[in-house]
Specification:
Layout lengths: L14 E3 L6 E3 L4 E8 L5 E8 L2 E6 L4 E18 L2 E8 L3 E4 L4 E18 L3
Antiparallel strand pairs: 1-3, 2-5, 3-4, 4-9, 5-9, 6-7, 6-8, 6-9
Protein name: (S)-ureidoglycine aminohydrolase cupin domain-containing protein
InterPro entries: RmlC-like_jellyroll, RmlC_Cupin_sf, UGlyAH_Cupin_dom
Length: 123
């Protein structure tokens, strides 16, 4: 039977990574992920993510959306789609949506921590 779960109910092992060299723009920020939940179909992922200062290129898949809520720090997303270049900054308390197909830059201006929900629809 499905049950209600708080993030504080689990203590996931942190996973550490760095942006791939071909995507790195500035710095070499260590990123830490505490993955708290995956649904039964493997299409929804939730957890906490943190990153040191830096910037790297990101590309969301055509079936992948992300919602996140900033817990601490400050960042910026720069969309680079066609000739359009949109820049949005976010900080503590902001809720952000990165839609499927987004291409651009993720920049961490001040060490950033966020709660995230990623959906990845099966094709």
């Amino acid at each position: 039977m499905p049950r209600i779960q708080l993030f504080s109910d689990t203590t996931p092992t942190p996973e550490y990574d760095f942006p791939r060299p071909e995507r790195l723009i500035t710095g070499n920020p260590q990123r830490t992920t505490w993955h708290h939940f995956t649904n039964d179909s493997g299409e929804v992922f939730m957890g906490i993510w943190a990153s040191e200062v830096g910037a790297w290129r990101i590309e969301m898949g055509s079936t992948e959306d992300e919602y996140f809520y900033v817990i601490s720090g400050r960042g910026r997303l720069i969309a680079e789609t066609g000739e359009t270049r949109e820049t949005r900054e976010f900080t503590v308390g902001d809720a952000v949506i990165i839609p499927a197909g987004f291409k651009g830059t993720f920049q961490v201006i001040e060490t950033l921590t966020k709660h995230y929900v990623i959906t990845e629809r099966k094709a």
